[in-house]
């Protein structure tokens, strides 16, 4: 079971992205997409998750889930992708992984973020120039939730993230293991700059939380 950042326990909404191995197509035809959607819904009850929005593209999937217990998230995605992987390999007489690494997840921490995420998910096929209107895409639930702002989804206020939450979330979502990159100054420098520039975390706090010498952090940042 993965170790989730503490901030993940402060929300019940998660944007999931899962992608085909080597970014290959994993939905070769419409029947494949329909099978994945069918499996998504069949596994919700046993894993205590609720599907808010989804969009199935040719080589990746976006799902917005609501889960009361964070551990159900990984159980659900593991079972869903394992089921589809077995189906896909059997159908196309192949072996090996179907999905690229593990799925990526992003916690949703505000009402605005929630609606922006829904819009982003539904507009994937529009951005890919598959259709002109999100409602016209057959392999999302956009038509069913188009008026979602009036459908009673109320986002519960969450506690503001502190710096430790932000760093844990950044490392988790980018699949970064500090112990592995601490000797790679190029990668470590990138991490430091992104934490400082994009998340507004002080160099002192970065050094404290990552347990790296503050002077080393400073030198890498200005290098």
Helix and strand arrangement:
Blueprint: E1 13-19, H1 30-42, H2 44-47, E2 49-56, E3 60-67, H3 70-91, E4 104-107, H4 111-122, H5 124-127, H6 142-145, H7 163-173, H8 178-181, H9 185-199, H10 203-210, H11 214-222
Antiparallel strand pairs: 1-3, 1-4, 2-3
Helix pairs in contact: 1-3, 10-11
Describe, in plain words, how this protein is organized in 3D.
This protein has 223 residues and is α+β, with helices and mostly antiparallel strands. The protein has 2 domains: 145 residues, Transposase IS200-like (Alpha-Beta Plaits), CATH 3.30.70.1290; 60 residues. Helices cover 48% and strands 12% of the residues. It is built from 11 helices and 4 strands, in the order βααββαβαααααααα. Strand 2 and strand 3 form a beta hairpin. 26% of the residues are buried. About 4% of the residues have low confidence.
List keywords for this structure.
4 strands; 4-stranded antiparallel β-sheet; 223 residues; 48% helix; Alpha-Beta Plaits
């Amino acid at each position: 079971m993965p170790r989730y950042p503490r901030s993940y326990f402060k929300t019940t909404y998660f944007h999931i992205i899962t992608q085909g191995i080597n970014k290959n197509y994993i939905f070769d035809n419409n029947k494949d997409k329909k099978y994945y959607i069918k499996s998504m819904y069949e596994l919700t009850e046993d894993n205590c998750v609720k599907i808010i929005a989804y969009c199935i593209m040719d080589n990746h999937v976006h799902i917005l889930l609501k889960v009361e217990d964070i551990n159900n998230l990984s159980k659900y995605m593991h079972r869903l992708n394992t089921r589809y992987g077995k189906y896909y390999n059997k159908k196309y007489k192949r072996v090996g992984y179907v999905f690229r690494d593990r799925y990526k997840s992003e916690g949703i921490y505000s009402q605005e973020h929630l609606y922006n995420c829904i819009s982003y998910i539904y507009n994937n096929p529009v951005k890919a120039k598959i259709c002109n209107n999100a409602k016209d895409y057959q392999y999302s639930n956009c038509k069913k939730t188009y008026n979602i702002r009036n459908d009673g989804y109320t986002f519960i206020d969450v506690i503001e993230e502190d710096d430790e939450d932000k760093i844990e979330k950044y490392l988790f979502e980018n699949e970064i293991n500090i112990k592995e990159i601490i000797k790679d100054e190029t990668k470590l420098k990138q991490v430091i700059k992104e934490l400082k520039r994009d998340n507004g975390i002080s160099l002192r706090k970065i050094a404290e939380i990552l347990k790296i010498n503050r002077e080393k952090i400073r030198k890498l940042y200005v290098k």
